[in-house]
Amino acid sequence: MTHHRSAWRNRWTFMLATAGSAIGLGNIWKLPYMIGVNGGSAFVLVFIGCIFFVGIPLMMTEILLGRRAQKNPLNGIETLAIEANASRHWKYLGGMGMITGLLILSFYSVIGGWVLSFIGAAASGNFVGMDGTQSTANFNQLLASPLTLLFWHTVFMIMTMGVVARGVNSGLEKANNILIPALFAILLILLGYSMSVGDMSASFRFMFSPDFSKITPVAVLSALGHAFFSLSLGMGSVMVYGSYLQRDVSIARATIYIALADTLLGLLIGLAIYALVFANQLAPNAGPGLIFQTLPIAFGQMPSGSLIATLFFTLVAFAAWTSAISLVEPTIAWVVENTEISRKVATTILGLIIWLIGISVVFSFNEWQNVTIIFGLNIFDTLDKLTSTILLPLGGLLIAIFAGYFMKNSHVQEELNLHQWSFKVWVLMNNVIAPIGIIGVFLYLFKIIQ
Ligand code: PFF
Questions:
Q1: What CATH fold (topology level) applies to the domain 11-449?
Q2: What is d(CA 240, CA 222) in angstroms, rounded to the nearest whole number?
Q3: What pLDDT was estimated at residue 243?
Q4: What is the CA(229)–ligand 1 centre distance, in A?
Q5: Which residues of the chain have pLDDT under 70?
């Protein structure tokens, strides 16, 4: 069956779309609280290492697989496996990625809903004059109301599926061009403010003073998982975006820009948040509610705070939205390229399934708080840990092995088009360093579980 495949208009739209996928709640909501939960600088150091030694090479790999295959991840990997005379079963790797994306979206959308509800709260001036206790109470009140959470989860899902139904590169391209630079700009305002009223030196020490004794195996595991989550790797999102990419774009250069922007944004937000945490005697290890409890205090004290807060949460919602879209795109591309089902119908059915799983996540923050699935983790934690620390790194490992040991080097090089020595560096990272790192972390995981 042949279908018309769309393509990005130019190199910038690809870069911005992929950056839009990478930059999202992972940077703004998840990274800051994970830093706090995992002991600060120890986690940051390992996270940066994982981005450079595993994330960047594997992002290049995913883009090159997508661009060579020009298909959705499942059929794409199958085509490449045939080209490489390898088993067609490799295609299930694409299938695993699709399921991972759907599971991630089921909780991503609930957190996206928190952000949406904060836009309204900011605009109506609720944060003005808030202190730490009030801010925590305000957030706990939101979590305690399943109906409110469900409402905003529903709105977020409708927003996401609305764009996916129309095709990712119709409306999204233009939006990204403005939103990502705007997000950086507002972040700088926040950072400037945190610097003036917060405790920036404590924040800097907390995040960057090297203290190797604090590096625990759990921190390493979480950092690796988060490197995948943050760069949208290991499940085919970047691969499907790469499949819409023109041939004349340098994959290495695009990857480095995207990875640097993504990492920088996350770390800057972390700095801003911890400056506020330490100045207001809040707990650095507050967990998933961290930014929702700290930022209202800052916005509540700032001149024109309500306006800036509204703008900030709106931009965060957009960032979450562009990432959410990329979580479903691999599956939708697969359905559309293999069946007669239209994009709209496929999107509606899939949206409903994810929405339903999301309802269980909503309840895991209140009524079902104590319902545990495995290892004493509630529904949200189970979905989060299963995807970030297992499925994404496993997907990444298999992608690296497939490209490094099954595809012909000459085919890989045709896509990467690197100088000889840079190609050797990529081979070393993709074939040796990244797989050994991931396997090492997995072996450790098995040891803790036993
Ligand atoms: N990278 C996104 C973020 O940091 O918020 C989340 C994400 C999107 C993860 C797409 C995985 C993915 F495939």
A1: Amino acid/polyamine transporter I (1.20.1740)
A2: 26
A3: 84
A4: 5
A5: 1-10, 168-175, 449-450
